[in-house]
């Protein structure tokens, strides 16, 4: 699997373009702004973007969904819990304070353990609630895209509506720290760095 990491948008989101080297099929994880930059990278590499994958529904991670979908025809994939939570009037009202556009409705909702096929590559959905109710990580050994669940040397905040520190801690300890130590962590923001491993986080992350 080929991985391109881009920092995009006003919130400096780590967006990923992942693609199958054999087929050119691709997915974009968390297009959080700078859509022209994302689309140009896809065009330069002659990629056929079939999915937009969201690790969670916060506006800074989904604000580019609409423009990217319009340009590529890709289907939006989100965990069922976040697709439902962020479609409520209360959630839309609260997060509108960021001034970022909403995402169109998800075309495909997924649950824990489901597989997403991109050409000859297969991602496994790992449900990691805590930052949001439907936060997920996408895993294709040795790579794991952890969104705002796990950062390099940190973890996601839980003070927004739908957040829970006990749930987040449980998700990290039981779902991520049980992955092989050589698993590469690709975070949703580069606050402490843009890449790590599960082994390094288990040993050096001050929250564990």
Task: Walk me through the structure.
The structure is a single chain. With 208 residues, the chain is of the alpha/beta class. It is built from seven helices and 14 strands. The two termini are 30 Å apart. The radius of gyration is 16 Å and the shape is globular. The protein has helices at 35-44, 59-62, 65-72, 80-85, 89-95, 165-176, 198-204, and strands at residues 2-8, 13-19, 25-29, 48-53, 75-79, 108-110, 115-118, 121-127, 136-140, 143-147, 150-151, 154-155, 184-187, 196-197. It has one domain: Metallo-beta-lactamase, Chain A (4-Layer Sandwich). The strands form three sheets. Strands 1-2-3-4-5-6 form a six-stranded mixed β-sheet. A six-stranded mixed β-sheet has the order 7-8-9-10-13-14. The longest helix has 12 residues, at 165-176.
Could you give the count of β-strands? 14
Sheet with the most strands: spatial strand order: 1-2-3-4-5-6
For the sheet with most strands, the description reads: 6 strands, mixed
* CATH architectural group: 4-Layer Sandwich
Q: What is the domain total for the residues?
A: 1
- Quaternary structure state of the chains depicted: single chain
Gyration radius, rounded: 16 Å
Residue-averaged pLDDT, rounded?
Answer: 97
CATH topology label: Metallo-beta-lactamase, Chain A
Global morphology: globular
How far from one another are the termini? 30 Å
What is the helix content? 25-40%
Structural class: alpha/beta
Task: Please report the first level of CATH classification, the CATH class.
Answer: Alpha Beta
Compressed to H and E, one letter per element, the order equals EEEHEHHEHHEEEEEEEHEEH
* Content of β-strand: 25-35%
Count of alpha and pi helical runs: 7
What's the CATH H-level superfamily name?
A: Ribonuclease Z/Hydroxyacylglutathione hydrolase-like
Which ranges are low-confidence, i.e. pLDDT below 50, for 5 or more consecutive residues? none
């Amino acid at each position: 699997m080929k991985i391109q990491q881009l920092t995009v948008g006003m919130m400096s989101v780590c967006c990923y373009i992942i693609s199958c080297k054999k087929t050119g099929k691709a997915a974009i994880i968390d297009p959080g702004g700078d859509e022209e930059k994302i689309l140009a990278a896809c065009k330069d590499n002659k990629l056929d973007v079939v999915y937009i994958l969201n690790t969670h529904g916060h506006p800074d991670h989904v604000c580019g969904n609409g423009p990217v979908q319009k340009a590529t025809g890709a289907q939006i994939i989100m965990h069922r819990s976040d697709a439902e939570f962020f479609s409520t009037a209360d959630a839309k009202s609260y997060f509108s304070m960021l001034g970022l556009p909403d995402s169109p409705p998800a075309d495909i909702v997924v649950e824990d353990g489901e597989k997403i096929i991109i050409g000859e590559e297969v991602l496994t959905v790992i449900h990691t609630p805590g930052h949001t109710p439907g936060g997920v990580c996408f895993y294709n050994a040795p790579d794991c895209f952890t969104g705002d669940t796990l950062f390099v040397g940190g973890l996601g905040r839980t003070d927004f509506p739908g957040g829970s520190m006990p749930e987040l801690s449980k998700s990290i300890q039981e779902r991520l720290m049980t992955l092989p130590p050589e698993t590469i962590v690709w975070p949703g923001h580069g606050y402490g760095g843009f890449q790590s491993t599960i082994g390094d986080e288990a040993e050096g992350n001050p929250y564990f």
